[in-house]
Each structure stands twice: as structure tokens, then as C-alpha cells.
């Protein structure tokens, strides 16, 4: 089992949660939701991946966002911004994309690290890392009754998260790197891969039925 020496700094985790929650709040604002609906969608988008990770896979007590009250405060702040300033925030999609790409790599690493620290195998660690990274967006789409974007052809997203989680496992398990050192390399690499795939127009392709 790899050393459990890397924990995502709380301010980084909260920052990613804020941006994911803000994207959920903006999605709710576009649909004309009331404040309650907007907050719920922001909450699900912001902490949904961690909720799936802790509740379904790792089962190590209450989810992190329940144990640390700052998560709910961050989601509340994102909800207020989304409710009152949705039109202005919609114009800075490039900024939101950049931070979302950073959060994708960070959450992929954290999910993988937590899994390895509990003695799970590499395959399970990669799966949990991907769920941690993309679960919030998936739950958001389900709640608003949209076909989840993860299921449709488009930008590399879950694949990038899987690459980041897999690279982290490679460095920690196969190469024996300390978890912190591996994370410091993998998060920027995952971010770069996400940005590069978007800029280059790399997309997944639709499956074709033989019938």
C-alpha cells in the first residue's frame, strides 16, 4: 500500500468545489430555477463527485462535505453569485474552463490517492478517481433531465480524468514516488491534456449500430 502522505490542501479542494458549484448555479439560472433549486443544483455539481466517492466506493464515514462546514459555505457563495450575476458570469466561460480543467486533475488524483491508501487495486483507484472528477456533472445532468454530456461524443473529459488517475497510480505504485510528488506532476499534466484536447478539437466518436 502506498504511503498516505498526500492530502489535497483544503483551499484547493474548496476552490474547485466553488467553481463546480458555480457552473451548477449558472446552469440553474439558465433554466429559471428559484433560489432553492439553484442551490440544490450548485450543491450537487460542487460536491457530487466526492459524495459518490465517499458514499458508494470508499465508505469511510460521513462524506467530506458533511464533516467540513466550509464546503456548504462555499456552495452557498457560488449560489449567491450565480443567482444575482448569472449574465455577467456567463461571459467568462474561458476562466471557468481553465479552473474546471484544474479541478478535474485535482479530483482525479485525490480519488485515486484515497483509494490506494485504503489498499484498493490500481483499476479500482482509477475508477474512483474518474468518479470523483466527473460525478458532480453527471448528477447535475440527471437532475435537470438532460442526457449526460459524458455519454455523448465530445471533448475528452472522463478520458482525461482516467489518464490523470492512471498516471498517478503508475508513479506511486510502479515507480514508488511519494504521493505528493506524483500529484505535483500529474495535476499540471492532466490540466495540460484537457486544454490541449480542447484546443486541438480532439473528440470522442459515436458508436455505430450494426443493425
Extract low-pLDDT stretches: none
Q: In angstroms, what separates the terminal alpha carbons?
A: 47 Å
**How would a crystallographer describe the biggest sheet?**
none
Helix-and-strand structural type: mainly alpha
Average pLDDT confidence is 87
Number of helices: 8
Overall spatial form: globular
Domain tally: 1
Beta percentage is: under 5%
Helix content: over 70%
- Total beta strand runs: 0
Over all CA atoms, what is the radius of gyration? 17 Å
Q: Give the ordered list of helices and strands.
A: HHHHHHHH
What does this protein look like?
Helices cover 73% and strands 0% of the residues. The chain has helices at 10-30, 35-58, 64-67, 70-89, 93-117, 122-143, 158-174, 179-200. With 211 residues, the chain is mainly alpha-helical. The protein has one domain (10-200). The model has no long low-confidence stretch (mean pLDDT 87). The protein starts with 9 loop residues before the first helix and ends in an 11-residue tail after the last helix.
Amino acid at each position: 500500500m502506498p504511503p498516505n502522505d498526500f492530502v489535497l490542501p483544503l483551499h484547493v479542494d474548496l476552490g474547485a468545489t466553488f467553481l463546480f458549484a458555480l457552473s451548477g448555479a449558472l446552469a440553474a439560472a439558465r433554466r429559471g430555477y428559484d433560489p432553492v433549486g439553484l442551490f440544490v443544483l450548485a450543491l450537487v455539481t460542487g460536491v457530487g463527485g466526492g459524495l459518490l466517492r465517499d458514499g458508494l466506493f470508499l465508505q469511510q464515514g460521513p462524506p467530506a462535505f458533511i464533516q467540513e462546514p466550509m464546503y456548504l459555505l462555499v456552495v452557498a457563495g457560488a449560489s449567491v453569485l450565480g443567482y444575482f450575476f448569472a449574465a455577467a458570469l456567463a461571459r467568462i466561460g474561458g476562466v471557468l474552463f481553465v479552473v474546471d480543467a484544474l479541478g478535474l486533475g485535482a479530483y482525479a488524483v485525490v480519488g485515486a490517492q484515497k483509494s490506494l491508501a485504503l489498499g484498493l487495486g490500481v483499476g479500482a483507484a482509477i475508477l474512483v478517481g474518474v468518479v470523483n472528477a466527473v460525478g458532480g456533472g453527471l448528477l447535475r445532468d440527471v437532475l435537470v433531465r438532460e442526457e449526460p454530456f459524458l455519454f455523448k461524443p465530445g471533448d475528452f473529459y472522463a478520458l482525461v480524468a482516467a489518464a490523470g488517475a492512471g498516471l498517478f497510480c503508475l508513479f506511486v505504485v510502479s515507480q514508488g514516488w511519494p504521493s505528493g510528488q506524483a500529484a505535483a506532476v500529474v495535476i499540471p499534466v492532466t490540466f495540460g491534456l484537457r486544454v490541449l484536447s480542447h484546443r486541438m478539437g480532439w473528440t470522442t466518436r459515436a458508436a455505430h449500430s450494426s443493425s
